[in-house]
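Hey,
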Amino acid sequence: MRKFSVLFLLVVVALGLAGCDWFRQKPDVVAEVGETSLTLAELRATVAPGEKLSRKEWADRVQQWIDREVLYREALARGLDKRPDVAELLAIAERKILVDQIHRQIDSAMGDVTDGEMTQYYEAHQDMFRRDRDVWTVGKVVFPNMNLANEYVKGWSPVQSEGLIAGKPGILPDGASFSIEVAGPMSDTCWSRDVRRFQRKQLSDPRVCNGSVQSFMLVDRLDSGGVLTFLEVRSMLPDLVREEKRARKLEQMIVDGKSRHPVFSYPEALDSLAPKN
């Protein structure tokens, strides 16, 4: 019997040295402090989707949880939660958490934003998408000398403009180059001061600018106050639609809630804070 007891004790010790996993009744629990447990699911929730952590980083997170839980229990043991100022802060935090959960419930029930919803929002909120400045697109031809420039502009035909913009060969004379610039009329360019006089499909009289001979042609003009196109603002529309839908649902929830909860407002109490004008 004595030999059996010694043998059993040696087995227990060996298993203990190998680790306690053999005795664990909660395989999903990572750590415990008193009656509180940290589960694998709760630990995973502390990491953003797709984020990868090393084993040491996971262990560090577990230790941080243990430290916080120990300090929390120390605070309770010292009666800090019973102090009036702390109790008030806890009540404020509780309200914020619950209101945030209302927002999350609304968001989770919203679903994906459809193209129809984005189009409807865009058409109903045109003023939100107005340009705050004039935007000009100007074609610039750079010539090797003034004589060639004058000769080319004199023989220019508006029908050549599409070929020039498209970069078709044979449109420009030898030694000349074409580029497109986009800027506002107040930009520091060789053409900004005269851009309002440029015409579509028509080259301007050549001038010397920044050491080269140049001629200009208006390609496109977007006036300030004009509305951005749907494609230009499409990337921001889903968030805007969700924000509007959330606001409507919250507004309706508040209206319904006011019918169930007595609400009183006393504007005269504000006189001590900000007297009436």
